[in-house]
Design brief:
By secondary structure, the protein is α+β, with helices and mostly antiparallel strands. The protein has one domain: Cathepsin D, subunit A, domain 1 (Beta Barrel). Helix content is 14%, strand content 33%. The strands form three sheets. Strands 1-2 form a two-stranded antiparallel sheet. The chain has a two-stranded antiparallel ribbon with strand order 3-4. Strands 5-6 form a two-stranded antiparallel sheet. β5 and β6 form a beta hairpin. The protein starts with 6 loop residues before the first strand and ends in an 11-residue tail after the last helix.
């Protein structure tokens, strides 16, 4: 996976780097790209959902007050351990 680049998402004036261990899923001898297309026509699109691959690294907070806000922070796993760690999936 080291041959894949880190991807940077710019949200507002902040940059969020996502390394390949967050957006490439390895199962046995195969690797899968975890992005999924979302075809939404204008005026709402194009859209992109920052799903599991983003939330594996960043914690998201929501403020539904008078001025709705959205905040991000490094998740606990990535603050203390820079290896790819995540809870197991349940089918």
């Amino acid at each position: 996976m080291h041959e894949f680049p880190a991807l940077t998402f710019q949200l507002g004036d902040m940059n969020f780097d996502i390394e390949p261990q967050y957006y490439i899923e390895k199962k046995r001898d195969d690797c899968f790209f975890t992005f999924m297309s979302l075809d939404v026509p204008a005026p709402r699109g194009p859209l992109f959902i920052l799903g599991d691959m983003f939330h594996r690294k960043f914690y998201t907070t929501y403020d539904h007050g008078d001025k709705p806000r959205l905040g991000f922070a490094m998740s606990i796993n990535t603050k203390h351990d820079h290896r790819h760690t995540r809870p197991p999936y349940k089918a």
